[in-house]
Fold this protein.
Amino acid sequence: MPEFPGLYRVQVVSPSNSASPPPVAIQSVLLESMVIFETELFLYYSYSFGESDYKIFYAKDENRKFEIDQEKGVLKDDIGGGPDFDPKFCSDDKMYSWISARDFIKYTGSEDFTEAQVQNTKQHVVLKKLANSLKETDNPVLVLVSLKK
Protein backbone atom coordinates (compact mmCIF):
# COMPACT_ATOMS: atom_id res chain seq x y z
CA MET A 1 0.00 0.00 0.00
CA PRO A 2 1.49 3.42 -0.91
CA GLU A 3 2.46 5.77 1.90
CA PHE A 4 1.43 9.43 1.96
CA PRO A 5 3.05 11.80 4.48
CA GLY A 6 0.35 13.14 6.83
CA LEU A 7 -2.32 10.90 5.27
CA TYR A 8 -3.77 7.59 6.38
CA ARG A 9 -5.25 4.99 4.09
CA VAL A 10 -8.30 3.08 5.24
CA GLN A 11 -9.81 0.14 3.41
CA VAL A 12 -13.60 0.12 3.28
CA VAL A 13 -15.14 -3.23 2.45
CA SER A 14 -18.66 -3.44 1.05
CA PRO A 15 -20.73 -6.16 -0.62
CA SER A 16 -20.34 -6.33 -4.39
CA ASN A 17 -23.33 -6.11 -6.70
CA SER A 18 -21.63 -8.11 -9.45
CA ALA A 19 -22.13 -11.84 -9.83
CA SER A 20 -18.47 -12.41 -10.72
CA PRO A 21 -15.65 -12.84 -8.18
CA PRO A 22 -14.40 -11.29 -5.96
CA PRO A 23 -17.40 -11.35 -3.58
CA VAL A 24 -16.50 -7.94 -2.08
CA ALA A 25 -15.45 -4.62 -3.55
CA ILE A 26 -12.70 -2.70 -1.80
CA GLN A 27 -12.66 1.08 -1.96
CA SER A 28 -9.71 3.16 -0.74
CA VAL A 29 -10.56 6.21 1.35
CA LEU A 30 -8.01 8.76 2.55
CA LEU A 31 -8.31 10.37 5.96
CA GLU A 32 -6.18 13.50 6.30
CA SER A 33 -4.78 15.06 9.48
CA MET A 34 -6.03 12.49 11.97
CA VAL A 35 -5.46 13.44 15.62
CA ILE A 36 -6.30 11.30 18.65
CA PHE A 37 -5.93 12.29 22.32
CA GLU A 38 -6.95 10.14 25.28
CA THR A 39 -7.49 11.06 28.90
CA GLU A 40 -8.88 9.01 31.77
CA LEU A 41 -12.48 9.92 30.89
CA PHE A 42 -12.34 11.15 27.30
CA LEU A 43 -11.20 10.21 23.85
CA TYR A 44 -10.85 13.16 21.47
CA TYR A 45 -10.36 12.60 17.80
CA SER A 46 -10.40 14.85 14.78
CA TYR A 47 -10.03 14.00 11.13
CA SER A 48 -10.78 15.22 7.64
CA PHE A 49 -12.80 13.08 5.29
CA GLY A 50 -13.43 14.43 1.84
CA GLU A 51 -14.45 18.07 2.16
CA SER A 52 -15.53 17.80 5.82
CA ASP A 53 -13.66 18.12 9.11
CA TYR A 54 -14.85 16.18 12.15
CA LYS A 55 -13.94 16.80 15.80
CA ILE A 56 -15.44 14.50 18.40
CA PHE A 57 -15.24 14.00 22.17
CA TYR A 58 -16.18 10.55 23.37
CA ALA A 59 -17.05 10.27 27.09
CA LYS A 60 -15.86 6.79 28.01
CA ASP A 61 -17.76 6.65 31.30
CA GLU A 62 -21.06 7.65 29.66
CA ASN A 63 -20.51 5.81 26.36
CA ARG A 64 -21.56 9.01 24.54
CA LYS A 65 -20.00 11.11 21.83
CA PHE A 66 -20.21 14.86 21.41
CA GLU A 67 -19.41 16.29 17.99
CA ILE A 68 -18.08 19.82 17.71
CA ASP A 69 -20.12 21.94 15.29
CA GLN A 70 -18.52 21.52 11.85
CA GLU A 71 -19.12 25.14 10.85
CA LYS A 72 -17.34 26.52 13.92
CA GLY A 73 -14.82 23.70 14.32
CA VAL A 74 -13.79 24.87 17.80
CA LEU A 75 -14.96 24.81 21.41
CA LYS A 76 -16.51 28.02 22.71
CA ASP A 77 -15.37 29.27 26.14
CA ASP A 78 -18.65 30.03 27.90
CA ILE A 79 -16.98 30.16 31.32
CA GLY A 80 -14.61 33.10 30.94
CA GLY A 81 -15.25 34.21 27.39
CA GLY A 82 -11.76 33.33 26.18
CA PRO A 83 -10.83 32.67 22.57
CA ASP A 84 -12.20 29.65 20.77
CA PHE A 85 -10.33 26.48 21.65
CA ASP A 86 -8.95 23.92 19.19
CA PRO A 87 -6.94 21.24 21.05
CA LYS A 88 -3.34 20.86 19.85
CA PHE A 89 -1.88 18.69 22.62
CA CYS A 90 -3.07 16.62 25.57
CA SER A 91 -1.39 15.45 28.78
CA ASP A 92 -3.16 13.79 31.69
CA ASP A 93 -6.53 15.54 31.99
CA LYS A 94 -5.42 18.80 30.39
CA MET A 95 -5.67 19.96 26.80
CA TYR A 96 -3.52 22.70 25.35
CA SER A 97 -3.71 25.15 22.51
CA TRP A 98 -2.23 28.56 21.77
CA ILE A 99 -3.10 31.84 20.13
CA SER A 100 -0.72 34.52 18.90
CA ALA A 101 -0.45 37.61 21.12
CA ARG A 102 -1.68 39.70 18.18
CA ASP A 103 -4.79 37.54 17.69
CA PHE A 104 -5.45 37.44 21.45
CA ILE A 105 -5.32 41.25 21.68
CA LYS A 106 -7.57 41.54 18.63
CA TYR A 107 -10.04 39.01 20.06
CA THR A 108 -10.36 40.75 23.45
CA GLY A 109 -11.13 44.00 21.63
CA SER A 110 -13.83 42.37 19.52
CA GLU A 111 -17.59 42.41 19.97
CA ASP A 112 -17.53 38.62 20.46
CA PHE A 113 -15.48 39.14 23.63
CA THR A 114 -17.09 42.29 25.00
CA GLU A 115 -20.63 40.96 24.58
CA ALA A 116 -19.94 37.35 25.60
CA GLN A 117 -22.38 35.82 28.10
CA VAL A 118 -19.97 34.26 30.61
CA GLN A 119 -20.38 32.21 33.77
CA ASN A 120 -17.30 33.70 35.47
CA THR A 121 -17.04 37.48 35.10
CA LYS A 122 -13.80 37.58 37.14
CA GLN A 123 -12.13 35.32 34.58
CA HIS A 124 -13.40 37.62 31.82
CA VAL A 125 -11.71 40.60 33.51
CA VAL A 126 -8.46 38.62 33.95
CA LEU A 127 -8.38 37.86 30.21
CA LYS A 128 -8.82 41.54 29.35
CA LYS A 129 -6.01 42.52 31.78
CA LEU A 130 -3.76 39.91 30.19
CA ALA A 131 -4.49 41.29 26.72
CA ASN A 132 -3.73 44.83 27.93
CA SER A 133 -0.34 43.68 29.24
CA LEU A 134 0.71 42.14 25.91
CA LYS A 135 2.44 43.55 22.85
CA GLU A 136 1.55 42.15 19.43
CA THR A 137 5.10 40.82 19.09
CA ASP A 138 5.02 38.84 22.36
CA ASN A 139 5.12 35.06 22.43
CA PRO A 140 1.86 33.19 21.87
CA VAL A 141 -0.60 32.82 24.74
CA LEU A 142 -0.85 29.23 25.95
CA VAL A 143 -4.45 28.15 26.52
CA LEU A 144 -5.02 25.35 29.02
CA VAL A 145 -8.30 23.49 29.47
CA SER A 146 -8.76 21.17 32.44
CA LEU A 147 -11.20 18.40 31.61
CA LYS A 148 -13.77 17.28 34.14
CA LYS A 149 -12.77 14.40 36.37
Summary: The radius of gyration is 21 Å.
